[in-house]
Records
---
Amino acid sequence: MTIALTVNGEPHEIDADPATPLIFILRNHLGLMGAKLGCGLEQCGACAVLVDGESVLSCNAAAGDFAGRAIVTIEGLAPSGTASAVQQAFIDENAAQCGYCTAGIIVATTALLAKNAQPSRSDVAAALDKHLCRCGSHNRVLRAIDRLSASDATDGR
Ligand code: FES
């Protein structure tokens, strides 16, 4: 069986069972290693990717369900190798520790700011509620988002 997916703007025909969780297609078939498998139970946020602009957890969702939709991974946020505004703010605030959760948090932040350039703290808390960071980088993540909200420089990525 094949699965037709569009990932980071490129169409792919992937020889795999459509019931395969999306994250395994992204990582094992397409070599996109940015999204991480953490809990595998939709409880940690490490596997988040953008689907039609929404932050979606990819660890349990069947890849076949994403046919015809625009999937963007953390790699797709910097297609030319230049960090997106969100990625750059996280770099500037050193908003990571081990980094395992970071791609998912950046994806969720990108989705949030694309819809709401000036989110309240409760808006941010709601958007990041599913994203766990065992290292405790939360304050730096919030500073990065504050920096973006102040500059309104999310450039849609
Ligand atoms: Fe998907 Fe934890 S790996 S939410």
---
Amino acid sequence: MATVRLDQKARALVRAVPDSYERALARYFGEGPTNVPLARNQHAAYCQALEAAGVEVHILDTDHAHPDCMFVEDQAVVVDGIMLLPTPGAPSRVNEQPPIAEFLMKALDGIQTCTMGGEARMDGGDIIRLGNLFFVGRSSRTNDLGIASLRSLLDFFDYELRIIDIPPHALHLTSITSTPSDQHILVPEGYLPKDAFGVLPEGSEIIWIPADEAYGCNTIGLSNGTVLIAEGYPSVKQALEQRGMVTVELDMSEIRAADGSLTCCSLFY
Ligand code: GLY
């Protein structure tokens, strides 16, 4: 999700909500899901919104043995025809990866694929991309060895990577930020230092959002100019619309309950 530019967001892999979803990890925004049918309805609306914006959506079979398996963003990083399969930071989520990897290897026939070894850990949810500038969160899920693996991949392209330290009260970089366009980063006040992103390319802007709308800072910008946003975050909606973006609101309550955000639920490839 976060690793492709807007113009590359043509195909998304998603994974359906498992029966075991109520046991999904939840520690930050969420207190744990309680309503699997509602989660399924919200996930279906999410897939429809992607399709309505022109994205080809592939729904991978769910895996009832893995309560977090719908959060596919964490399991692979696809950058301009190279794929990194990170070792996820949560041990309970490591075995979600093989079917996702298998699907992507088939879909992207012949794609060059790198894996991580040793103690390297990374969740794809710790990466955002602003054009050809990348940011990675150093978090409870992503360590320095994981970041070094990502850097090796980005070095193929001469893409710059900047590290953002994620505060202990947030899960991932994408939990609190996103790039609704290739020129904008949404960030909640009080979570990151004002200079955390460094000097941005000319024409780019950080949009600061009140801290009580931190969850709303996760959005999906699509190539047709539409931005998917979570319902109930008026400052986010207004900030994007003031800048000419067209927003589509989605009820994310049961996905937020498992610390999941919009980007977590898809993997663009
Ligand atoms: N529940 C999503 C995660 O913790 O990875």
